[in-house]
Design goal:
alpha/beta, five-stranded mixed beta sheet, 29% strand, globular
Length: 437
């Protein structure tokens, strides 16, 4: 019935007309996700939506099992969802336990400067990749000694801001090279088949050139429109929308920062961009980028500009749903959430009232928080029995773990001293793998 792909929403509604008066709200959610699937632009977004659809159908069958489970449209939808998940490499849930390893490594110096191996960014990136690999190898060696097995997923996470340049940010090409470098160093080796890596976060920056009003204050100085040039009607000129008499200019408005968490499991890779910028993220709220080429290259220091599409950006994101390219991702049938530092305590609607992923708590099995100055607090945005894991790079570095609904003694952790790497490893678990239903 649906041999090649999920049905369009119109066809699905027509095929399930018989249920629509008695199905309640669950079928409306299924409708919304079928529509979301057609709009998804990445394989990970499709995987997230398909995973959600599978869970919604299970919920629906619990309500109306005798009439729903055998219906031709529902059976066809389940079959095509399973087929598409296989095509997208979304393996079925295969882990019964999970061990979480936090690399408690400081990401600033004793004087509060950015931690780095060398001032040259390329050498710094390479040095940090090699140090992280040493920490990963130490973690694996310790788990092998303590009776590791293939039914346990291992999650290794480094803190926020592990990868950044001497002046606040790397170039984009250096950030893009981090995961390939880690793979070459060994993270895609078969011995790490059952490991998921979060390589902390990396900061990239680029010049943001805009036409702006030289009189108005931000963000009103970007309210510009283009009108016909009275001296040459064939051309247009910028004009301040607040006051046409104000002077305008085109030039460097700031340096846009992209603070991204880098994630890898085998051949599967993913990236989550931080939404909110904290006042402690960048010294004097500025970063430096290199502009120009060849002999004309210069370093340009300017105010940071939040990444386009984020909650603080002047550019509105196409999607508000975090599954469609935000902080939710699905690997091996497990739904993860990622909140980078300040994202864990902020939402665009009401800052400090709940985390970025709070509305999705009933779908997230494991919530990961790489940070620099953030704690878990009461933000357990996950299913009951779900795991919230925080690795922080401020001061000496730390890690913390909470299980939602856990009653009894604290979760056991042990400290491991990594070989050829700074800091220490906090090893938590193994714990029972959380389930959504």
């Amino acid at each position: 019935m649906y041999d090649q792909d999920l049905p369009k929403l119109v066809q699905w509604k027509n095929d399930t007309q018989i249920f629509r008066k008695t199905a309640g709200g669950v079928i409306a959610k299924i409708d919304a996700d079928i529509d979301n699937y057609q709009k998804a632009f990445s394989n990970m977004a499709k995987r997230n939506v398909l995973n959600s659809l599978s869970q919604l159908i299970v919920s629906w069958e619990k309500i109306q099992y005798s009439t729903v489970s055998g219906h031709v449209a529902v059976k066809a939808l389940k079959e095509i969802i399973a087929k598409k998940l296989r095509e997208l490499g979304a393996l079925a849930h295969k882990y019964s336990q999970v061990t979480l390893i936090g690399w408690e490594r400081p990401c600033s110096t004793m004087t509060g400067d950015y931690f780095r191996f060398v001032d040259k960014d390329s050498g710094d990136q390479q040095g940090k990749c090699h140090e992280m690999m040493h920490a990963i190898e130490s973690a694996r060696n310790n788990l092998v000694l303590n009776g590791d097995n293939d039914s346990t997923l291992k999650i290794f996470m480094a803190p926020e801001f592990y990868f950044r340049g001497a002046k606040g940010a790397y170039s984009y090409d250096l950030v893009a090279d981090i995961i390939p470098t880690m793979k070459k160093l060994g993270t895609e080796n078969g011995i790490y088949e059952h490991w998921l890596f979060v390589f902390g976060t990396a900061v990239a920056a680029s010049e943001d050139t805009q036409t702006f009003c030289t009189v108005c204050l931000p963000p009103n100085n970007l309210k510009i429109k283009f009108v016909k040039d009275p001296k040459n009607p064939a051309k247009t000129i910028p004009q301040c929308m607040n006051n046409p008499a104000h002077a305008t200019a085109e030039g460097s408005y700031g340096n846009e920062v992209q603070n991204v968490a880098l994630i890898q499991k085998g051949q599967d890779t993913h990236m989550v961009v931080k939404e909110y910028v904290s006042g402690i993220d960048y010294k004097a709220d500025q970063v430096t980028v290199t502009v120009g080429q060849g002999k004309s290259k210069t370093d340009q220091t300017n105010w940071y500009v939040p990444p386009a599409g984020s909650s603080q950006s002047r550019f509105v994101s196409k999607f508000k749903d975090e599954r469609m390219g935000g902080g939710i991702f699905t690997i091996d049938g497990i739904t993860f959430g990622m909140e980078i530092c300040l994202d864990h305590s902020h939402t665009s609607a009401t800052p400090n009232s709940g985390g970025r992923l709070a509305p999705y708590a009933d779908t997230i099995q494991i919530l990961l928080i790489p940070s620099f100055g953030m704690t878990i607090g009461t933000g357990l945005y996950c299913v009951n029995g779900g795991i919230v894991f925080n690795v922080d790079g401020q001061n000496a570095g730390s890690s913390d773990l909470k299980v939602k609904g856990h009653v009894g003694p604290p979760v056991v952790r042990r400290d491991v001293a990594p070989q050829k790497a700074s800091g220490k490893l906090g090893v938590w678990g193994p714990l029972t793998m959380p389930h959504r239903i």
